[in-house]
Design goal:
mainly beta, five-stranded antiparallel beta sheet, three-stranded antiparallel beta sheet, 2 helices, 8 strands, globular
Length: 145
């Protein structure tokens, strides 16, 4: 992809939770060559091994959301999501999909891999909601939490 080869598009993003330096292109850059239709509200980030992460379009296009190619000034390793990782620093880590393979536009939200297993649909770090039972419409936490 030519966007990833242009050093002018690289930028640094520091993750507030763990102080990692991520380098890549703003995720919103993908919208220029492939703009979403008017009814798109969410995206699904598809990754290797059956992983996926659903995001509101506003989270995907946030200025701090990156398609990362480097971490700490070095190319990503397989452990950290090489060759491409979605980094969404204002959301919990399960929203930052490793081994990114594709982005799908959605006209309605649908759960990703971790959300199907009880994690919060949005995963906003600042509200502290990590699990789906923390929404007001869920009566109690599942056993063991």
């Amino acid at each position: 992809m030519d966007l990833l080869r242009n050093p002018a598009t690289l930028r640094k993003n520091v993750c507030a939770r763990a102080f990692h330096e991520w380098f890549g292109i703003p995720a919103a850059t993908l919208l220029r060559p492939a703009p979403p239709a008017a009814g798109v509200t969410h995206v699904m980030a598809w990754a290797e091994y059956g992983y996926s992460a659903n995001l509101r379009l506003s989270d995907f296009t946030a200025p701090t959301t990156l398609l990362a190619t480097h971490r700490g000034g070095e190319p990503l390793t397989a452990e950290h999501g090489s060759p491409l990782r979605l980094v969404v620093p204002h959301l919990y880590g399960y929203k930052s999909a490793k081994w990114l393979r594709g982005i799908e536009y959605l006209t309605a939200d649908r759960p990703g891999f971790w959300e199907e297993r009880g994690y919060h649909n949005v995963g906003d770090v600042w509200t502290g909601k990590r699990y789906s039972y923390q929404d007001e419409d869920h009566a109690a936490p599942p056993p063991g939490r």
